[in-house]
Amino acid sequence: MPTVKTPDARHPPWPAVILAGGLSRRMGHAKSGLSLGGKTMLSRIIDRLRPQVASIAINLNGAAEQKTIVGHPVIADTVPGFLGPLAGVLTAMRHTAAITPAATHVLVVPTDTPFFPHDLAQRLTDAMTQREQIAVALSDDALHPLFALWPVALADDLEHWITTDPKRRVRAFIERHPSVTVDFPMTTTASGLFDPFFNVNTPDDLLRAEEWLRILGENSA
Ligand SMILES: Nc1nc2c(ncn2[C@@H]2O[C@H](COP(=O)(O)OP(=O)(O)OP(=O)(O)O)[C@@H](O)[C@H]2O)c(=O)[nH]1
Ligand SMILES: [Mg+2]
């Protein structure tokens, strides 16, 4: 009888959650539905993430009737009130604990950063030297806590932090735990250096993203 190899969920590829649960106030419309080069922002993120991870769920609020998007489960914040990006990270941890209980970490990425590195998961994983570390991306001296491998075991502490820290500070939460940062290089382009973590928050950013799409030579549709 052939042996069926069961994937070991304690190791990569990790489950992933796309954070799309914010209010998009600066943009004025949900950012995941925005069209960039003829594709939605969300489908760009899914396409970039899929080869890097074991599974994808989408953290979205106010879409209770929508159970899946292109086959990926939709999960609403586990704590109500739009408590910020950390509420999305907490939701990612809770979902992972429920669906993939053996996974030690979940990779989170936001929905508004369409050019994030193709080797994000690999480099964050390679940087971890101990089991309970948060592995966080960095570029151009800026930390990107929403591009991180988050230990699922931190869920209870994170829920306490979100509901008690008045500003729900992300960096301060990370500092309470073992962490490692991974510096991702700027991309060299014909128009100068480009930060792969460029994120789209405003209508002007969307125009700039269209321009970068052209400069980077990424596919348009
Ligand atoms: N689950 C969840 N995610 C959030 C929340 N607030 C922000 N996010 C997500 O965190 C990421 C970064 O947030 P921002 O760029 O500030 O996005 P935003 O809150 O949608 O936009 P603004 O309202 O313009 O600040 C995005 O992927 C958001 O979807 C929240 O309350 N809950
Ligand atoms: Mg943003």
Explained architecture:
InterPro entries: MobA-like_NTP_Trfase (IPR025877), Molybde_CF_guanTrfase (IPR013482), Nucleotide-diphossugar_trans (IPR029044). The protein is α/β, with parallel strands linked by helices. The protein has one domain: Spore Coat Polysaccharide Biosynthesis Protein SpsA, Chain A, CATH 3.90.550. The protein has six helices and twelve strands. The protein has an eight-stranded mixed beta sheet with strand order 5-6-4-1-7-9-8-10, with helices on both faces. A two-stranded antiparallel sheet has the order 2-3. The protein has a two-stranded antiparallel sheet with strand order 11-12. Strand 2 and strand 3 form a beta hairpin. Helix 2 (85-99) runs antiparallel to helix 4 (155-164). It is globular, with a radius of gyration of 17 Å. The termini are far apart. It binds guanosine-5'-triphosphate (GTP) and magnesium ion. Guanosine-5'-triphosphate (GTP) binds at residues 19-26, 59, 77, 82-85, 87-88, 91, 110-112, 146, 201. Guanosine-5'-triphosphate binds next to helix 2.
Work out the count of structural domains: 1
Query: What is the residue-mean pLDDT, rounded to a whole number?
Result: 92
- The percent range for helix content is 25-40%
H/E element order: EEEHEEEHEHEEHHEEEH
Gross morphology is globular
Distance between the termini: 45 Å
Taken as a percent bin, the fraction of beta residues is: 15-25%
What's the total helix number? 6
Tell me the Rg in angstroms: 17 Å
Give the name of the CATH architecture: Alpha-Beta Complex
